[in-house]
Design goal:
The protein is of the alpha/beta class. The protein has 3 domains: 212 residues, L-fuculose-1-phosphate Aldolase; 179 residues, L-fuculose-1-phosphate Aldolase, CATH 3.40.225; 191 residues, Rossmann fold. 46% of the residues lie in helices and 13% in strands. It has 25 helices and 18 strands. It has a 7-stranded mixed sheet, with helices on both faces. Strands 14-13-12-15-16-17-18 form a 7-stranded parallel sheet, with helices on both faces. It has a 4-stranded mixed sheet with strand order 8-11-10-9, with helices on both faces. Helix 18 packs parallel to helix 19. The longest helix has 29 residues. The radius of gyration is 30 Å and the shape is elongated. It binds zinc ion.
Length: 684
């Protein structure tokens, strides 16, 4: 492992900035810490609020991520107030958290790391802690005692596995007090602590000890997972199969709470799953409690047996899933003291040899964290197999980590989820106008959105904006011609692969050709039917297939038009094709109600804002037909409504959101106008 300390960057920084620099360096290497793991600290002399000098400790705040931390994420504690705790024999987690909160030197600073006491008890200026894969490999094997002594001799102390808290902190503090010459402490099934008289020394020792572990592993056995069987099916077929199976798996794991899936068929995962020992090794247990919180104790392993038979694979998935839930429930019952109800018993990591890995999460970001962490679990297993046989925490320790009150407490203080959290939506014609506003509105309420449009690059741009505003993975852009069955099939395959399924469809894409029927070109008539009728049929059919495979219900909203109940002269091609769309929606409501899928219609009118439908030529043509100027056309339309108000795309989006949400859970087959009030267009 390369030592990345750059004196030209670090020299001249104040001590806290040096700590930030070291923290970011360690955080940037995912083989040292992944997503929120690890922590660092320094001890300095600071002025307290009275202006008196006091020994202080700056430490990583709980829940922050080392790769992106900044100064304000390091709370400052009065070190002198903490140290009397070292004389105590025991302390509960709750008392420790309360006590440390009183040691904070600044009001409103973030909560300090749960490993604060351990840092405090080490009598050194700077301390660095990681969960380095290589070091955990050395602790997680049946031969760890001699392996650790081979690698480090007497330069380190080894401390048995305990959950972070007072006891572990005291054990480490005592070990170092008794042997002050040590370079570091290795915590079994957990990670590495190093220290120094300044930040650089703590970092240098850390990198040096991790490098020793890496070098030792590199000299170990080469074939760590046993023989690799050629089970992996080839690229494109693998993706097709994964997209076929995604919604079925998503339906099963979402029974208690919705999840988003992430599919991964990277070489490391495929190699692990295709190996002789993959299944056994994956069932042994998590690498560290830090991994466990995201991955659960074990992944679900599904042997698809006959890769060519979808029904047989689904049966195998179903069988394996029930078995998993049964085992999780039994494990919970064996260890619980009824202090906390059982968490959802479904897997976070699903491995299918030959096909790939799915990870699950409440959103795309969470599913990605699980995937990243499982890659590191595989690394740790590989390292452990190079030097011995992989071993893990005991079932009791795993239970104590998963049901750790301090970890569960985090769930209770999390902000309430948004209305469409855990949902996946697909919106057609979403690169501009009403469709774009709808996509953005659904995303702002927590949905993941597949932004589709004939203009693929414009769809990508809208998706990128949604991601920038709402977070990682919250949208993808997909080029889609709704009138082309192949294009529709591809867009829905992308959706299945990206998120594992679909909950909401907003069928919006449309065109509005103008012309009296006796003058209309057949091609314009046909194009209108292709997009405004057949387009809705094609996307709705694909959406319903996914929703039925998931068996989680769903909501479909068709964007109709005022012209359905109240057609306009010279809008024959448009009015006829949109009326057919509405009839399609109603038949679909009849056919899908029993599957819990709701189908509703929104009828907007005269929305000009950002609209592609209202092209310049259509505006000129309509202005002439009504005898007004182009500039006055929008006002002309508003003035003829009952409410005499401008109708905006955000008004349509609000109605779509309502119909998509659980608030409309008893409404299907409905048609809601969003037109400012046009009495000829009252639904009847
Ligand atoms: Zn740790």
């Amino acid at each position: 492992m390369e030592n990345l300390w750059d004196p030209t960057k670090a020299n001249g920084l104040d001590e806290l900035d040096k700590l930030v620099y070291m923290t970011n360096l360690i955080g940037a290497d995912s083989s040292l810490v992944v997503w929120g793991g690890g922590n660092t600290s320094i001890k300095t002399i600071e002025k307290d609020f009275m202006g008196n000098e006091a020994p202080a400790m700056w430490i990583k705040g709980s829940g922050s991520d080392m790769k992106s931390m900044v100064r304000s994420q390091f709370p400052r504690l009065n070190h002198e107030n903490i140290m009397p705790l070292f004389e105590r024999d025991d302390m509960s987690d709750e008392d420790m958290v309360d006590y440390l909160e009183r040691c904070l030197m600044d009001a409103h600073s973030p909560r300090p790391s749960i490993e604060t006491l351990l840092h405090a008890f080490l009598p050194f200026m700077s301390v660095a802690h990681s969960h380095a894969d290589a070091v955990v490999s050395l602790t997680n094997n049946d031969d760890s005692v001699s392996v650790l002594s081979d690698v480090y001799g007497d330069r380190i102390a080894v401390v048995d596995y305990y959950r972070p808290g007072f006891k572990l902190s005291k054990l480490v503090g005592l070990a170092v007090k008794n042997s002050p010459h040590l370079d570091g402490v290795v915590l079994m099934n957990h990670g590495l602590f190093t220290w120094g008289n300044d930040t650089k020394e703590a970092y240098d020792k850390h990198i040096s000890l991790v490098t020793k572990a890496e070098e030792y592993i590199a000299k170990g056995r080469p074939s760590v997972f046993g023989l690799i069987s050629p089970r992996a099916i080839e690229g494109e077929n693998r993706k097709t199969l994964a997209s076929t199976l995604g919604p079925y798996i998503r339906g099963l794991v979402s029974e208690q709470q919705g999840t988003v899936l992430r599919y991964d068929s990277s070489a490391a995962v495929v190699e692990f799953m295709s190996s002789e020992k993959g299944q056994i090794l994956s069932s042994i247990g998590p690498a560290t409690p830090d991994h466990l919180i995201h991955t659960k104790r074990r992944p679900l392993w599904i042997d698809p047996v006959d890769i060519g038979n979808i029904d047989a694979i689904k049966a195998a998935i179903n069988e394996a899933m029930s078995q998993y839930v049964k085992e999780y429930t039994a494990w919970y019952q064996e260890h619980t003291l009824q202090e906390h109800p059982m968490l959802d018993p479904y897997p976070r990591v699903i491995l299918m040899p030959g096909v790939g890995m799915w990870t699950t999460g409440k959103d795309a970001h969470a599913a990605r964290i699980v995937a990243d962490i499982y890659h590191h679990t595989i690394n740790v297993i590989a390292g452990a197999q190079a030097v011995g046989e992989y071993s893990s925490l005991t079932a009791q320790d795993v239970y104590d980590a998963e049901y750790w009150p301090l970890e569960l407490y985090k769930l209770t203080i999390a902000p309430p989820e948004k209305e469409l959290a855990r949902k996946v939506a697909l919106v057609t014609g979403a690169a501009s106008g009403i469709g774009k506003t709808i996509a953005e509105r659904l995303a702002s309420e927590g949905a993941h959105v597949v932004v589709t449009d004939l203009d693929g690059s414009a769809a990508n741009a809208v998706a990128a904006d949604i991601v920038a505003t709402n977070g990682f993975g919250r949208a993808i852009g997909v080029e889609l011609d709704v009138s082309d069955p192949d294009s529709v099939a591809k867009a829905f395959e992308s959706t299945r692969l990206e998120y594992g399924g679909l909950d909401l469809l907003v069928s919006n894409a449309g065109i509005a050709p103008v012309g009296a029927i006796d003058k209309l070109d057949l091609s314009d008539w046909q194009r209108s039917l292709d997009i405004n009728t057949t387009g809705h049929f094609l996307v709705a059919a694909k959406a319903v297939q996914i929703m039925k495979e998931q068996d989680l219900g769903g909501s479909i909203v068709f964007i109709g038009t005022k012209n359905v109940p109240a057609p306009g002269a010279e809008f024959g091609a448009y009015s006829v094709s949109k009326a057919a769309e509405v009839q399609l929606a109603r038949v679909l409501a009849l056919e899908t109600g029993a599957s819990g899928i709701r189908v509703n219609i929104v009828n907007p009118d005269a929305i000009f804002e950002g609209s592609q439908l209202w092209s310049q030529s259509l505006r000129e043509e309509r202005a002439a037909a009504h005898g007004v100027s182009v500039d006055d056309l929008e006002t002309f339309y508003h003035e003829r409504t009952l409410l005499k108000r401008q109708v905006r795309s955000s008004d349509v989006a609000e109605t779509v959101l309502f119909l998509a949400s659980e608030r409309a859970s008893r409404t299907t087959g409905a048609m809601i106008p969003v037109d400012g009030g046009v009495k000829e267009a009252f639904p009847r």
